[in-house]
């Protein structure tokens, strides 16, 4: 199954993570999406990243950073 099965926002998140030079944190992704660096804006992105990780789309490090597949 390809990324076309994901929502447009999840595809954008995948693009941000896969083009990053290294592991990314939720706040990095939130900023790349044009959101503010506040808990109310970062936490939903963290949840999306965790879902993508739980479904096998993104590996997650022990320190909460996400890596491209």
List keywords for this structure.
single chain; about 70 residues; mainly alpha; 3 helices
Could you characterize the architecture of this molecule?
51% of the residues lie in helices and 0% in strands. It has 3 helices and no strands. It has helices at residues 8-19, 26-32, 39-54. Helix 2 (26-32) packs across helix 3. The relative contact order is 0.19.
* Low-pLDDT regions: none
The value of Rg in angstroms is 11 Å
Helix proportion:
40-55%
How far the N terminus sits from the C terminus, by CA atoms, comes to 14 Å
For the largest beta-sheet, the strand count, sense and barrel status come to: none
Shape: globular
**SS strand fraction:** under 5%
- Kindly state the mean pLDDT as a whole number? 93
SSE sequence, one letter per element: HHH
Q: Number of helix segments? A: 3
User: Which structural category fits the helices and strands?
Assistant: mainly alpha
Task: Tell how many strands the DSSP assignment holds.
Answer: 0
In short:
The protein has 69 residues and is mostly helical. It is built from 3 helices and no strands.
Q: Secondary structure elements and their pairing?
A:
Blueprint: H1 8-19, H2 26-32, H3 39-54
């Amino acid at each position: 199954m390809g990324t076309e099965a994901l929502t447009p926002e999840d595809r954008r998140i995948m693009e941000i993570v896969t083009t990053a030079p290294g592991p990314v944190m939720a706040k990095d992704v939130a900023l790349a999406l044009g959101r503010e660096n506040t808990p109310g804006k970062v936490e939903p992105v963290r949840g999306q990243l965790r879902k993508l990780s739980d479904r096998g789309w993104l590996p997650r490090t022990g320190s909460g950073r996400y890596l491209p597949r």
